[in-house]
Specification:
The chain is built from 20 helices and no strands. By secondary structure, the protein is mainly α. It has two domains: 183 residues, no CATH class; 163 residues, no CATH class.
Length: 469
């Protein structure tokens, strides 16, 4: 009977306990989320909270089925779960070693080699190791069931997306439906923001960091709780994918500075200070970027270019050889000027590709459709506004500036390093909500300008002339 329940077996992570416990967990989560939403004052909870959470759980099941039955049990999510099962076995072999492997950094190579050979390299990788340890900790209260652990990862990702939605809804309440789509219902974000992977943890932490840092800086409410949450999210992102922090902090600093600039009452001072603030923002944002990059040597510019040069051609070659969906950015000059030249291509591939004819696998078709929609929407806005007005709208709105700077910087980072569409559609999900939010705000601002222009001007009242008597 034990063979029907979770155990170590190659290329399998779904067992009978997954099919038995997943429906019970969904029913319990549905009930608790309904009660929670009913007790909230904001109407968006009753409209979107339960529905959005259920979409994520359904996506989590779909993703598990795709990896188990479409990919034949392969993929990173199975790898993480396999290491989780092995780490649980260590607890029965030597409990002291288990505690060391679970709670201490993976520095003892002899100990790791003893239990994880072959596969030592994957376990000692800090970001992979963190996912394995989180999964292992969750596996005990969740009965060692893949689907239940996956639900927790997915719920954390939904928490971050919900916080992004709440924040921008607070700023632009009339764009409720648009932001709900951008934050809660983008198909690729729903699908790839699930499972035992780094990506749902990263998007969840990014959304929570965006929300709590804003509340901390501008509303100063629940200070201790928010400070702890900001520290936790920053730590999680730094250990999982530090390039998200490299893209996020400079953009967020721009947002904070320009929000404070808007609080200045004098229009003259705001106008005269804008160039100075812009210069200071670029300087401090660049300083933050350089300091974080030097702190994490792996992401220093020299190391990035060297690593990219060593890996890009191999990724592209192996993808094509195995029938995958590789892409290339052409011949790259790995210098500062070369990076500037390839910058538009890398951003384009992240935001708008794969094109429909490049989606060689069925799983890439939804991402290709999303890329087509975002490309059409972007071109439509540029055509309707014109380049000059489009640029003015971006510069004049702090929220759009933040979303655009982060989205474009992050798009370059993943577009320049992925070189495989299958990986790219997963890696780029953190930028998707922010990019669509920026487009929706731009469209709304442009519409507001058009409405003002189209309003007929009221005729001036004739001035009564004084007739001498």
């Amino acid at each position: 009977m034990e063979k029907w329940f979770t155990h170590s077996v190659p290329n399998q992570f779904l067992f009978l306990n997954d099919f038995l416990l997943a429906p019970i967990a969904i029913a319990l989560i549905y009930y608790l989320s309904k009660v929670y939403a009913a007790n909230q004052k904001s109407p968006i909870y009753k409209k979107y909270f339960v529905q959005g959470l259920m979409v994520r759980l359904a996506s989590s099941i779909l993703m598990a089925f795709v990896y188990q039955y479409y990919y034949g049990g392969g993929g990173d999510t199975n790898t993480y779960f396999t290491y989780t099962l092995r780490l649980r076995e260590v607890a029965h072999e030597n409990f002291n070693d288990f505690l060391q492997l679970l709670f201490l950094p993976p520095n003892d190579l002899f100990l790791i080699h003893e239990y994880f050979n072959p596969g030592t390299e994957f376990f000692i990788n800090n970001s992979s190791n963190l996912v394995i340890r989180i999964s292992t900790l969750l596996s005990y209260p969740l009965l060692n069931t893949y689907m239940l652990i996956s639900f927790c990862f997915s719920a954390f990702c939904f928490y971050g997306c919900w916080k992004i939605f709440r924040l921008f809804y607070q700023l632009y309440p009339h764009l409720e439906k648009q932001f709900a789509f951008a934050c809660l219902y983008i198909p690729s974000v729903c699908f790839w923001g699930t499972g035992i992977l780094k990506d749902p943890l990263c998007l969840g932490a990014l959304g929570a960091l965006t929300y709590h840092l804003y509340k901390l800086l501008f509303e100063r409410s629940k200070i201790i709780q928010r400070v702890l949450m900001v520290i936790f999210c920053f730590w999680l992102l730094k250990n999982l994918k530090v390039y998200i922090v490299l893209s996020f902090l400079p953009a967020y600093f721009f947002w904070v500075v320009f929000k404070y600039k808007d609080s200045i009452n004098s229009r003259f001072l705001r106008t005269t200070m804008s160039p100075l603030i812009f210069f200071i923002s670029i300087s401090i944002g660049g300083f933050i970027l350089i300091k974080i990059a030097s702190f994490s040597e792996r992401y220093a510019l020299e190391h990035l270019m060297r690593t990219a040069k060593d890996t890009q051609n191999w990724i592209y070659y192996s993808s094509i050889k195995q029938g995958g969906s590789g892409y290339t950015l052409g011949d790259i000059d790995y210098s500062t000027m070369g990076l500037i030249k390839v910058f538009p291509k890398a951003v384009n591939v992240s935001l708008f590709r794969p094109y429909l004819w490049e989606a060689k696998k069925p799983i890439l078709i939804p991402a290709a459709i999303e890329g087509l929609v975002s490309l059409f929407f972007t071109i439509y806005l540029l055509y309707k506004c014109g380049f000059v007005r489009f640029t003015r709208l971006v510069i004049s709105n702090p929220e759009v500036q933040f979303c655009m700077i982060f989205s474009v910087a992050f798009a370059f980072a993943v577009g320049f390093t992925s070189f495989n569409f299958g990986s790219l559609v997963r890696y780029k999900i953190p930028l998707m909500p922010f990019y669509f939010i920026a487009l929706f705000i731009l469209a709304d601002r442009d519409m507001a300008i058009e409405e003002v222009k189209s309003k007929p001007k009221k005729p001036k009242k004739p001035v009564a002339k004084l007739v001498p008597t």
